[in-house]
Amino acid sequence: MSDKKADVLVWGPVHAALTQNLERDFTVHNRWEIKDIDAWAAEHGAKIRGVVTSGVYGTDNALLDKLPNLQVVNSFGVGYDPIDTAYLAKRGIPLSNTPDVLNNAVAETALALMLAVSRRIGEAERFVRAGKWLNAKLPLGNSLNGKTCGIVGLGKIGKTIAKRAAAFDMDIAYYRRGQAYPDVSYTHYGNLIELAKASDYLILIVPGGVDTQHMVNAEVLKALGPKSFLINVARGSVVDEKALVASLLESGIAGAGLDVFEDEPNVPAELLTLDNVVLTPHIGSGTHETRQAMADLVFANVSGFFDEGKLVTPVSV
Ligand code: 8YV
Fold first, then answer.
1. In CATH, which of 1.10.10.10, 3.30.470.30, 3.40.50.720, 3.30.457.10 is domain 103-279?
2. Which amino acid residue places its CA nearest to atom 8 of ligand 1?
3. Measured CA angle at 62 (ends 294, 34), to 5 deg
4. What digits encode the pLDDT tens for the residues 112-138?
5. Confidence (pTM)
């Protein structure tokens, strides 16, 4: 009999600090190292009491079905759209995520993309590296100062973005279906098309999932218009990527800063050829400080659950 607390299945590689802590206190099984997961689950599935995954890996109900004694799922990341919460609720399995600790990092990424796409930083960098400065001029960029920053999803990260954009002397507006937030002074739009029309920069930071699937479609992009930019630090699924590519190809919008895509890590080939698009590989929360804090919070949830039966940051499923 092991003196470790429980057998835990880890879905994919996670932060080294989390791996270390889990391996010290739990019996860890790495899903991605198991060749025949069905055969493995048939033999060992009943031992597994915890699953550690991420907002990128998600889970798979067919495999969870083979873990009859599963008690908890702990996810690395604030977004949990690839995890079927209705399924977990049906089995009475609680879920935790990592809210708050990544607000600053994701907001920084949104600002970085907004600045980069406005001031042509990616294009300028390529220009210098290619030796073009010697005999050509880079086209001018656009100032953020005095422009309208439209935020879709004024949650905790959205508010953190708003505060930083306001420091650049931008006017802040946001979309919320129905009523404005009573305690928020930014300009409210109850209609996304109207917010898009009013925005010079439309920043997406809503949760992914069926409720927001393709919320930004051809109509919203048309309303945003040829002088305005789209920034996505939410989920690729929030944008109809085909419509976005079409819009960018016909100069329907001025440009885009994209950290997330519909089929990561695949990025539509057309985007790779465009200078007015800044592309990053889902690095929203990707700083040393934030990933450490996320790793610590996941571990606090795993041990909180197995030590005291309590999650630190439960998701209501
Ligand atoms: C990823 C994120 O989860 O928190 C989220 O929702 O998208 C990210 O922080 C993280 O990159 C997973 O490794």
1. 3.40.50.720
2. 77
3. 65
4. 999 999 999 999 999 999 999 999 999
5. 0.96
